[in-house]
Every structure is written in structure tokens, then in C-alpha cells.
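Review session, final week

We close the course with one last complete record, chosen because it touches almost every idea we covered. It is Anti-sigma K factor RskA C-terminal domain-containing protein, a protein from Alloalcanivorax profundimaris with 225 residues. Go through it on your own first, then we will talk.
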Amino acid sequence: MIPQDQEERRLLIAEYVLGLHRGERAAEIERWLAWDEDAARLARHWREHWLGAADLLPAPRPPARLWRRVARETGLARPWWHAGWASVSLWRAVSAALLVAVVLLAGPLRQPAPVYTVVLQAPGESARPGWRITVSDGGDLRLTPLVEGQYAADRSVQFWTLENDAPGPRSLGLVEPGRSLVIPASQAGSVESGQLFELTLEPQGGSPKDRPTGPVLFIGRAVAI
């Protein structure tokens, strides 16, 4: 459903342009843009804005194994320029571009204005944003899902943070997949640039220890706006 709030609409368009929506949700947004000229105009603005920003990033390079597969299936010889492309830095560049975009977009869209933002992504080479965190100037932390997730009934998703000078991770509580969560400043604590946040899959009810015990689902670091 397309939100009625203008700020939420602006954020939705920005997320769509960044490629954070897929499937039926993306199709719904496309139908909306087809008849709403104001929304379509804003989408064009974001596209032009980020195309310019993308010029500042390194050229993406597909992983070596992808080129080997293409060469094997097409019978193409290895070109002279392959050495410059055989790198896993593609996904790092994509992640950086996405993070910069979300950082710049988040500021004017919410009140009170966030002072930090985090994009939590699935670990590994393939950049797949799963959640977004914004921290307001009052210190409240908002965790917003970008994807839907389903996990076994005997498992829980737990939210963690690791301050730069902290001796270990600190739990911020359990998260219900697919639903937003607001954590007040009194519980979230202070946030610093570079601070680590992650979601892990734990036994039902949360980790039995004072640290994560299960696999990392999504992870990211705070960036000051």
C-alpha cells in the first residue's frame, strides 16, 4: 500500500530508485509512478542525482568466478582487460554507493532528523540490504525492515551493537522479522560513527549468553549524517 504521509512517500520513492524493493512491491510502486506525475518527477530527480553520485565511485568489477562461468558457457577467450575486472570489489562498491545514498536521503525525510544511519546487509560478497537503522538527534533508534524474513519457530532474531571501545557486544533485544522496532535512547545508549550493529539468529528467547551465538543475518556500521 502506498503511504499517505508525504515524507513516507518520499522515502519510498528513494528506496525504489535505489533498488531496495523487489517483486510485487516494486510493481505496485511502478504503477503508482505511472499515474502520479509528482511522484514520477521525484523519482526522476533521485535517478539523476544518484547517477551523478555514481560517477564518483570506482568502476564495478564482477567477481572472477562470474567471468570464468561466462567464458566457459560462451566459449569466449580471456580478453586482455580481464585482469582489471577480476575482483570481488564490485559488491563493496555497490554497498558503498547504497550506504552513501541512504545517508544522504535520510536527513530531510524524517523529523526529528536522524544524526546516524546504518544499512544492515547480509554478510558475504553479494550486497543485499535487509534493514535500515536511523538514530534521531534525541538518541531514539528506529529499525526498519527492507525485506521480509521467515525463520523457524524455535529461533529468535536478536539485535546487537558493539561500541568502538566496548569490551563486547550488547543486546538491544529481540526483533520480529518484517516489523519495525523503535528503541528509546535510554535503552539504545549513545551511538558513535563506525559503531557496529547486527542481527543474529539465536535460540528461541534469545542468546543464552551475553554475546551472539548464532549466525549473523545482517550487519552494518553507523555513519554520521
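Two points worth writing down before the exam:
The CA atoms of residues 60 and 90 lie 4 Å apart.
The chain has seven helices and nine strands.
Good luck, everyone.
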